[in-house]
Amino acid sequence: MTPTAAPAPGPRPLVGEPLALDLLNTRWMRDGAVQDLLTSPGGLAVWLGANGLDGRFEANPITLLHTKIARDALSKAVDGARTEDLDLVLDQGRIRATLTAEGPGEIPEFRDPRWGPGWLAARNYLELLSTAPDRIRRCAHEACVLHFFDTSRNGTRRWCSMAACGNRAKASRHYARTKES
Fold first, then answer.
1. Which residues, listed in sequence order, are joined to residue 35 by a DSSP beta bridge?
2. Cα–Cα distance for residue pair 159/166, rounded to 1 Å
3. What is the mean pLDDT of each run of 10 residues along the chain (181 residues)?
């Protein structure tokens, strides 16, 4: 499976998720407004760097466009709406099996390398689905749009972050209880 993203400095509240979910998390809410890291090649460069892809792919306008197409397709697939769009992204590349001195391996190949980041995220989503589809979650807080892969032992994680969304939910429940009293 593709390794998870290494936490990196930047504006996003949640980093370190598997590549597919980290791409989805380039959109988040702040003060009731949607924020989007992928509004420019500079934002794409931040995301590529956070995922160790900055040495492999160039952050240019076409790569940005293709990555945003992949993000929208992933969003539809995760929400259970449409998978055809994700298939169109996956059509842009393939895995070539190889044998190296270290043993068997796989090399991704792309029709156009500017599809690479989006294709890798789409491929990672397939890996997550084959591993544990029930562990792909959207944060349970109604005002949050972030996604995570639940790695908790019993699979009951509900929040993207207990410190942020989980705490807000607990505070809301506490306020409702004290208001009733």
1. 28
2. 6
3. 50 94 97 95 97 96 98 95 92 96 95 97 97 94 93 91 70 59 63
